[in-house]
Amino acid sequence: MSRLLSGLLLVFVAAFSYIYLFSRWPVTRDVPWTAFLLFIVALALMISGFRRTPRKVIASIVMVIGIAFMAFFTFGTLIGTRMLPSSQGSPAIGAKAPDFTLPDASHRNVTLSQLVAAPGSNGVLLIFYRGYW
Prior knowledge:
The protein is mainly α. It has 2 domains: 2-83, no CATH class; 96-127, no CATH class. Helices cover 55% and strands 5% of the residues. The protein is built from 5 helices and 2 strands; from the N terminus they run H-H-H-H-E-E-H. The chain has a two-stranded antiparallel sheet. A hairpin with a 5-residue loop joins strand 1 (101-103) and strand 2. The longest helix has 24 residues, at 56-79. 14% of the residues are buried.
């Protein structure tokens, strides 16, 4: 029974560690592979604990809770985020970006039109990160 409960606890640790820790860095934010690795270990623990416990009814309930939480997390991070509505005011791919002003590394305000018109400039590459902050 201890392996079964340890597996269930690891399922929750995996999900919440992604939300509160691993979503900070792009390498672990875009695809929650750390959570999936912990889910595999948790599932192995739960299956091992299920086979060893004499009370199959309680063990079945714990297994269903763990697997359902893993499925909910997987759906929410991989499928649910793709179903978010698109932004109505965003420019289309290849369209001219609206002019904006942001501070640079020296805390001086720089506009997009200044960067495009700078001598020797061949253009500006804008990178937008999808974030959870």
